[in-house]
Specification:
Double Stranded RNA Binding Domain; five-stranded mixed β-sheet; mainly beta; globular; 437 residues; twelve-stranded antiparallel β-sheet
């Protein structure tokens, strides 16, 4: 015989459990379902981020240049903080298949934060915010969250998407003008730049072209009448024109070696060059792996080629045109560490048929945080110049010298800088107050 009291007790407990269980509607089930996308496409909208460093450290997504084709739009904004640093706000906005998903993260720096610490913190914050989106991509199963750097060619390293109709080419066109003057002076400047570059793991191609035009007119009033009208005046004109183009093609050989060539063509009234043409194959060896280039680099370069000139006026060597076989050698060291950053470059050029015609340039810079809040920066460049084959014959007049209308004979050129900074006080940097400034 069934005891109805026991049945009623069990039924009551069951109804109670059902009433306490959260109800999931069909729309909620669809919203919570894991959406799958292919390799995640991300658009980074940030003016202060080191994009080369970011792309090197976060190589398991596709970085795109157009936000409308991105799965995630990362908008990074910054505000000056009360302690002298900055507060960066990361807004992660899901798009397309990930629309409706998002997050906001914050990263702060203080007055003594180095450039390396800042970019590392920005990149780490960016990587953390992308985790939830990468988890819903087809590459999530092969991704491990780790601090270990992926080796070159390993699964997940950045590759060019097959759907890119531009085949990794990026183009840039820039126009500029500067107009000014007064009653006795007028200045006109115009410039145009057209650049194109393509970067893949195997090839690097860059094309840069520029056109610059400037003219100045100055009136030196020598005599006026009783009404202030100009009777006699001397007008001085200065016209400068230059254009140039440079093509650089580099082929990766190994993680330490690459080869390529540089081809250049240009013209300059200042340097008395009606046309200059240069072609130079070159070779580079980097002591450190290229994958570490954003952290440290020690590269040796060597090249040899041809340098040809056609001049506006006869040179001091009685030439209107000439060509030189030339060589080029350089060593470049750069590092960016938690203590700061530094770099030094030594470059030497010379003509094989005339060893006396040569030039050497040394430039260096360093920014070091010696202790909390105290930083020192210094550097400069010095050039030994013995290859001014383009100098005009004859002595320049006074206007040429004062207005720098033409290059002058020199055996050296230098530039130096030095600075220190010291910040002290509260190390806390949590408050943002944008009022007034």
């Amino acid at each position: 015989m069934v005891r109805w009291s026991r049945v009623l007790t069990i039924l009551s407990i069951t109804l109670l459990e059902l009433s306490l269980t959260p109800r999931v509607t069909w729309s909620q089930a669809v919203a919570n379902a894991p959406l799958q996308v292919s390799t995640l496409s991300v658009f980074l909208d940030c003016d202060d981020c080191s994009e080369d460093y970011v792309r090197t450290e976060i190589s398991y997504v596709n970085w795109v240049r157009d936000r409308t084709v991105a799965d995630v739009h990362v908008l990074v904004t910054s505000q000056d903080a009360g302690g002298g640093g900055d507060v960066f706000t990361f807004a992660f906005i899901g798009q397309r298949a990930l629309i409706g998903r998002g997050d906001t993260l914050v990263f702060s720096t203080n007055a003594s934060t180095t450039n390396d610490e800042e970019r590392a913190g920005l990149t780490q914050t960016l990587a953390l915010g992308l985790v939830q989106f990468v988890a819903r991509s087809s590459t999530a199963s092969s991704l491990r969250i780790t601090r270990q750097r992926l080796a070159a060619g390993a699964p997940g390293m950045q590759t060019m998407p097959s759907s890119d109709r531009w085949r990794a080419w990026v183009f840039e066109v820039a126009l500029g003008a500067d107009l000014g003057g007064e009653q006795n002076y007028r200045n006109r400047e115009f410039n145009v730049e057209v650049n194109a570059n393509r970067t893949t793991a195997e090839w690097k191609t860059g094309l840069e072209t520029s056109l610059d035009y400037s003219s100045e007119r100055a009136i030196d009033v020598e005599e006026v009448d009783s009404l202030g009208r100009v009777i006699e005046a001397d007008t001085t004109y200065d016209l400068q024109r230059s254009w140039g183009g440079e093509l650089v093609v580099v082929k990766s050989i190994t993680g330490h070696m690459s080869t390529g060539f540089r081809a250049a063509m240009g013209s300059s009234t200042f340097r008395n060059q009606l046309l200059r043409t240069e072609f130079m194959p070159a070779f580079e060896y980097n002591v450190f792996d290229y994958a570490e280039a954003t952290r440290r680099r020690l590269a040796f370069q060597f090249g040899a080629g041809i340098d040809a000139f056609a001049y506006h006026d006869t040179t001091v060597f009685d030439k209107l045109r000439e060509a030189f076989p030339m060589y080029y050698a350089a060593v470049n060291y750069a590092t960016q560490q938690p203590w700061g950053q530094s770099g030094i470059r030594l470059e030497h050029r010379g003509y094989l048929n005339d060893p006396a015609k040569r030039s050497t340039e040394l430039n260096a810079n360093m920014n070091v945080r010696l202790f909390r809040g105290f930083s020192v920066r210094f550097g400069g460049e010095y050039s030994w110049i013995h290859d001014q084959v383009y100098l005009r014959k004859g002595n320049p007049d006074q206007a040429d010298v004062l207005l720098r209308r033409t290059a002058l004979l020199t055996s050296y050129q230098y530039n130096l800088f030095f600075g220190i900074s010291y910040t002290f006080g509260s190390i806390f940097n949590n408050v943002v107050n944008p009022r007034f400034f």
